[in-house]
Each structure stands twice: as C-alpha cells, then as structure tokens.
Amino acid sequence: xxxxxxxxxxxxxxxxxxxxxxxxxxxxxxxxxxxxxxxxxxxxxxxxxxxxxxxxxxxxxxxxxxxxxxxxxxxxxxxxxxxxxxxxxxxxxxxxxxxxxxxxxxxxxxxxxxxxxxxxxxxxxxxxxxxxxxxxxxxxxxxxxxxxxxxxxxxxxxxxxxxxxxxxxxxxxxxxxxxxxxxxxxxxxxxxxxxxxxxxxxxxxxxxxxxxxxxxxxxxxxxxxxxxxxxxxxxxxxxxxxxxxxxxxxxxxxxxxxxxxxxxxxxxxxxxxxxxxxxxxxxxxxxxxxxxxxxxxxxxxxxxxxxxxxxxxxxxxxxxxxxxxxxxxxxxxxxxxxxxxxxxxxxxxxxxxxxxxxxxxxxxxxxxxxxxxxxxxxxxxxxxxxxxxxxxxxxxxxxxxxxxxxxxxxxxxxxxxxxxxxxxxxxxxxxxxxxxxxxxxxxxxxxxxxxxxxxxxxxxxxxxxxxxxxxxxxxxxxxxxxxxxxxxxxxxxxxxxxxxxxxxxxxxxxxxxxxxxxxxxxxxxxxxxxxxxxxxxxxxxxxxxxxxxxxxxxxxxxxxxxxxxxxxxxxxxxxxxxxxxxxxxxxxxxxxxxxxxxxxxxxxxxxxxxxxxxxxxxxxxxxxxxxxxxxxxxxxxxxxxxxxxxxxxxxxxxxxxxxxxxxxxxxxxxxxxxxxxxxxxxxxxxxxxxxxxxxxxxxxxxxxxxxxxxxxxxxxxxxxxxxxxxxxxxxxxxxxxxxxxxxxxxxxxxxxxxxxxxxxxxxxxxxxxxxxxxxxxxxxxxxxxxxxxxxxxxxx
Length: 796
Hints:
The protein is 32% helix and 19% strand. The strands form 9 sheets. The chain has a 6-stranded mixed sheet, with helices on both faces. Strands 21-24-25-20-26-27 form a 6-stranded mixed sheet, with helices on both faces. The chain contains 28 helices and 27 strands.
C-alpha cells in the first residue's frame, strides 16, 4: 500500500503558491528615485505617469525590468554569460515577485544599410525558405535569396589521413548567395565628386586634399610621399592617367617607407571602407558634412534597388519574385500568401501569414518588407518589436512598454489599447510608461511619479485607480482632463510655400500650399504620408531648420553643456580670466584627472559579471585635476559650474561679474523648452527620452532659419509640458518664423492656425490631401478621422 503526501491547502484556505500576486519594490534609488516603495498587482495593466524626468523609466526599466533580466541571465552558465551584456544589480533594497520581463522599448532598430523591416523580423527568413522550396526555376538554398550572402567559389588541394596514409585531393566549393555584386546588397551605389576630394590646382604637399583627417603632416603624408606612384610636389591637374589612377583607385599594396612596412590604398577605396560603408548618421558632424557634400547615392543599375542578383529575381512563385514580394505593401502581401495553396509548405505559410497579419493588426500594414529599418520612427520600431509577441502562448510574463502610443493617430491609439488589454487578459503583467490620457484611461492600476523632474522628482505621488488619480491633486491628476480650446482668431499667413507634384513614397502627385508666418500642423493616420510630404518636399538647408525624431548620440562623457556647445564659451571665459589655455577646462582634454581620465569614476571589468564603477578617489568624482579646480570664474570653479542646474546657471551667467552673454543665450533656450532643472554637466545617458527630444529642440533653436520643421515635438512630453511647448511655438511664430509641425496630439492641432490632413488611410490608401483649412473648419466639417477625433477632444 502506497501513501501520498498532499500539498493541497485545507478547504477554504489559500494555497501558498497563490500568495505571490504582487511585485514588491522597496528602497529603489536608481538615478533620481528617492527610496521608492510600491506594490504592483500581477496580471493587471499598470500605467506609470509623471512629468518627463520624474523617474518613470528609472523605476520601470532600470529597476524592475533590469533586475528581472539580470536574474534570468544568471541562470545560464558563466561561459554563456561571457557572451551576454553584463548588468549590475539596480540600487534597490528589495525586489520580490518578479517574473520574466519582455522589454519593448523605443530604441531604434539597427541602422545598418542592409537591415530592413523583413530582416529585422522573421518575415524575410520565412520568405527565403518559401522561395527556395517553391520558386521556379529552382536556384538553390534560402541563402540564394539573401542579399546579405555573396556568391563565392574556390578550390585547392587538401590533405587528410585515411587508412594510416596521408592522402592529397583536389576539393572545390561554391556558395550561391543572393547579394547583388554591384551594390553589395545595399540597393544603392555611390558616385563621388572628385572636386570635393582634392583641389586639382594644388599639389599634395600644398594641401590639395579636402578629405577630413587626410593631411600631409601625419601618416598619410609619409605614405603619399614615400609610395613613389606620383610626385607630391606636382599639381594633381598635371598627373598622368596612370598617376591619377594610382592616387584614386589603386588597391591595397604593401610598401616600405623609411624602413617601415605600410599599406598604400587609393583615396576612393579607402573612403568607401572608412566612411561610405557606415551609417551616415553615426559619423562625426564634420565627416558627415563631407560625405553629404562629396557623394551622391543612386539606385543600383544592376539590381534596380532590389539588392538581389538576377538569378534570385528570376525565380518566381505564381508570377511573383521575392523582390516583388518584399516591395509590396505588407497588407497586400498577406493576402497573396493566404492565396497560396501548397500543402507541402502549409506550416510555413501559416506562420508567415500570421506574422504579416500581425503587422496589419498593429497598424503597420502600410510598410513593405524592403523598407530600411533605420528609416522607421521610434514608435514604428517599437511596434515592429511587438509583432513577435502578439501571438505568443506565454503567460505570466511581464511586458514592459515605453510610450507605445508615440507616433499614433488618436484613431490608432484605440487599436493599441486593445492589444495591451489582450496581452493582460492572457494572464500577463503589463507595465506601461505613458502620457496620453486615452492610454492612461484603460489602466487597472496607476503609479504617478513626481512631483517635478530631476532632483525634484523620484517620489510616488499617487498609487491607485484612474478615478482616484483625477481627484488626487497631483500634476498629472490636474491635467488629465485638460483640453486645449480652439483659437478664437488665427494668424494671417505672410506668404505661401508651394509644393507641386509631390510623389515620394506613397504620395500621389500632391499639390499643396503651406502658409508661411503661421503655425501649420500636418496630420493624418500613421503611414498616410506626412513625413514624406514635409521632409521630402522641404529639405533642410538654406533658411530651413528641420528637427526630426532621430536619437541624439552621446556617451557617458557627453552632457548638455558639451552637446549644446555651452561648454565652449564657458571654457574660454575661464581661460581668459585665469590666463591659461581653454583645454584645461575640459574633462576630455588637458584638464582631465589623470587617475580616471576625466570620467569621474574608475570602471573595473569583471568579465561575465557586471562591471563595477567606483568614484575616483583622487578627484572625488569632479573629473578635473586639482590644479584646474584652483582656477575660478565668478567665484566658482569649473566643477561647481558644471554641477549647476540650468536655471541656476542662467542666473549665474546672466549678470554680475560672471556675466557671459554667449552662455546665457544657450541657457535661456534650455529654460524655454522646460529643462531648467537639468544639471548642465549631467551625463546624456541619464536623460529620459522626452528630455533628449527637448535638448535637441533647444540646440536647433539657435540656428538661423525662417522655417522650422518639427516632427512630433510632443513625444515624451507630459500633459503639463505640452502647454509650455505651445507657448514656445507661439513665440517662434511671433518672432517672424514659420513653424510646420507633424503632429498627432489634439492640443497642438487645436492650437494651429492652419491644418493639412493627409489620408484617408495608410500606405496606398493614403497619400492624398483630405483637408486644408483652420482647426475650426475641420471640427465643423468632421469629414475625416482627424476631424472626428479633434471634435470629440474639444467638445465640438
């Protein structure tokens, strides 16, 4: 007779395993958090609110999600952990009840030229398998349809042991790839303007080269003088055909100069490797300007921009090649895949159809699989990352979202809300950082952080239901039901910017006049053609300042002072006041503490474990040499100045003995965009998304231009900050500027002088002007989706 021990709880008693229904956080101090203690219900939708910089990201991403991922990583062997990013334990006392975290943030997808929407998801991989099985003529394995795999072949003699003897045989191999050999899978070829590479009337020794970094003073000069392929004292215009070819096109060649082995390479192949093969936005500003000036990119004549070989394009299924499939709008491609009746690949077709339907369901059906992933907005990139989770069978995991409604029209926000609720209803915990009232309204639980930003934030101001938030009296609660009213009178335009026959992407020969001297808002559902119209027809250049959604770059050594150029006048003022060189007042140059090289902390790499950062004992985290801290300006040393908040620094440099107009002007703009609380020496890596967006806006406001083009400036902004942004836009217009804003936020639409609405749908269902006029006319007509939502917003 066997006996079993039951672990079931007595009748009426709760099972011990059912008691873990909360995520408990106690003593969270990451970044600006001040010993935060909260309890979050599992299998519910929790929304985190608060002004930009209040600590939402620090709590959700840098504490809860980061610890969950760190603990999962620790379950792997140390060998595997060595290949994974090492994460330090967040600064928190207690974290209990964590589940596996799946993070869906707004980090842009890789901007590699060969990365597309198809390669960034599983869709392109499945298409390649499909064509390798069904495509006729059959040309090879799935890699024969990949534009990232080049065709190569080779052969030679190999030796191996067989039966105790050394046998020598001839072997050959062939790999059939789909990469177009002309453009190497990029779809475009570059043409270089030789006049931008050199001045033909000068010799090399006279400084003929115009390429950044290519001077005759260093190694390049030694190579050019010692290679013997041309005379460095002869003007380039007088070079023979052979000499010019050696200067421009010669392949890598080993040479010996002054007894040292070096490699000579022509200018064009060297530039292609060092500059043109990289993402243009990742280059330093002066190098980026050179590349933009010296090169033009045109569609590859061999592959027609498809990136694929002729063989890959010739293999077809039902008259469709893989290049045709990738060029189709995803919603149409999903219909085509469902129309294929091939039992031999039925599981593959089912999975591919589900993936493509997920694109449509999430509001990205207007994209194509060939779309470069680097061109997606932050909101689009986040939704692409969501696709792999929509049909997941996983339950009891924690999904973490960072403003999933960014870039969405009010009409699309309802669909996003439905997706978030579906994830919750499967039994998952959903944590969302959000500012939009429509998204906050669906929350089961709300955590409001504040009361302010930066050092004025980091505490929990409210925790509970949405109705309780409305009555709480917090900044978010007071502004939750704010509605901007339509203006009683709109400004009269001072001129017109004519756009004729705009046909970029999905635009259909659009003719439109954009009024100048007023605030113009261009709106429409996501994918309707707004960015194509504005950025494609109003290129940034003479008189135009374009502020897009591209991320600002910066390491932990970068800060608002270095990014905005504020540090330059400050350094010069310190140098002039003390009679020393300006480089001493840079923590990245001569004034850096020698122990920590100006970082303020000393990093110790512990291989597969998280590295340790210890405050430098010599400079005590101030980053400068002790001698440099002895120099003062206005009674403060450089470390004290960099520790100031923007608002304090504005007062400091605004008058008295420390008056510095050049610095005050930059600081004034930072205050105008609502960043008065930010430390001017605070590392950029600690800034939130909304803070980075406004920092970029403040920087560009200093540029001379008559037309300002802004792409969703409300991204990452709290409801209370939107009002301040509207005041800033009004000041720009009142100063004689023309402001054109691409925006979905109804408060900005209501505040506009003129609205241009594109649609009626997305992709090939959009690309047309469906309304032009004042916001009042749009509300009265209610003829478009935008009109309906704006009318509901203003109560019209």
